[in-house]
Specification:
This protein has 335 residues and is an alpha/beta fold. The chain is built from 14 helices and 5 strands. It has a 5-stranded parallel beta sheet, sandwiched between helices. Helix 6 (156-170) crosses helix 12, helix 12 (261-275) packs across helix 13 (287-299) and helix 13 runs antiparallel to helix 14.
Length: 335
């Protein structure tokens, strides 16, 4: 079954081949978009990303390998399937295509049946990927819905996502780890969506029973995000961001290196952010006083001293602009 809305970008410097592919794609029920070289194709991609790219390898200005590498290297286009059309048959050429991130190869001269099968298969896979992205967006929206319940926490998730990455970079985290920190920062409190508002927004101290309910939110958050495999690396952060370095936290009473690294970073950033932003029971604290309390949290066994040391450097660099530097826009969560 064809996907009538699918748009396929074709890049080829040979006008006859371009016209042939144009007609083939129309006959398959898809919408063609034509480019005569790699640079033209890349510009079209950035303006309006298609559902799939068919590109010749040997083109002027930018060859197909480089075009593919650029597509796969950008956040907004990296999930678009790329098929290399090539008359090159050597193992070396195919390795170059794989290294560039190509999803498939079609050898010239090609047949309509082969083109149809490859394109249909990749578009179906793209639809599955889009569905997963939409599911992620729903979960991120839920996280923002939790934040929106309390006007005092506006921008809190974005700040945790941003500053946890800044601290993580200073500590030598990998790109995959930084992505998990960013996602964990946004989603750390998503489990609060399952906490009754009378507890969540209670202005005074919680009762013992209410405290038990409130402390269930890390596990609830993990359960919400667990079905999405793309969020697997953020799950330890979501579950463990309320653990204390001395073992006095919850839900698992982990301590020191038992606590996931990302959770220790989020805990420290979370602690400081709460101090320097307005709360219903007090105004935001000055940076110097908040820094003093941050170090006291290390002395009391709450926070990881090595992380607080790096966070203190970041705080000194941004000063009183901590809360104003980061907005609530979260579209770059996949960076």
């Amino acid at each position: 079954m064809n996907h009538p809305a699918a748009r396929i970008l074709v890049a080829d410097d040979d006008s006859a081949t371009l016209e042939l592919l144009n007609e083939m794609i129309k006959n398959l029920g898809y919408r063609p978009q034509l480019a005569t070289n790699g640079e033209e194709a890349l510009e079209a991609l950035r303006n309006d990303p298609p559902d799939l790219v068919l590109t010749d390898v040997m083109m002027p200005k930018m060859n197909g390998f480089e075009l593919c590498k650029r597509i796969k290297g950008e956040r907004t286009t990296r999930l678009i399937p790329v098929v290399l059309l090539t008359g090159l048959g050597s193992t070396e050429d195919r390795v170059m295509g794989i290294e560039a991130g190509a999803d498939d190869f079609i050898s010239k001269p090609f047949h309509l049946s082969e083109l149809s099968a490859r394109v249909h298969s990749l578009l179906r896979l793209k639809q599955f990927t889009d569905d997963l992205e939409h599911a992620e967006e729903v979960i991120f929206s839920l996280a923002l819905a939790v934040e929106a319940k309390d006007p005092y926490t506006q921008g809190h998730c974005a700040r945790l996502a941003h500053y946890s990455v800044v601290v993580g970079r200073r500590l030598g985290a990998t790109d995959d780890e930084l992505l998990s920190f960013r996602r964990g920062g946004i989603l750390h409190d998503i489990g609060k969506i399952g906490i009754p508002e009378k507890i969540l927004l209670k202005p005074g101290p919680l009762t013992e029973e209410e405290t038990v309910v409130m402390r269930s939110h890390p596990i609830k958050g993990e359960d919400i995000c667990k079905p999405l495999r793309s969020l697997n690396k953020a799950l330890p952060i979501i579950r463990s961001h309320h653990e204390w370095f001395n073992g006095g936290g919850y839900p698992d009473s982990l301590k020191e290196d038992q606590i996931p690294h990302g959770a220790r970073i989020i805990a420290a950033v979370d602690y400081y952010d709460a101090l320097v932003t307005d709360r219903p029971y007090r105004k935001a604290l000055p940076m110097e006083e908040a820094l003093r309390m941050l170090h006291e949290a290390v002395d009391s066994g709450h926070l990881d001293p090595s992380i607080v040391q790096e966070l203190a450097v970041v705080i000194s660099n941004v000063g009183d602009s901590w809360a104003s530097r980061v907005g609530t826009e979260l579209r770059h969560i996949h960076d």
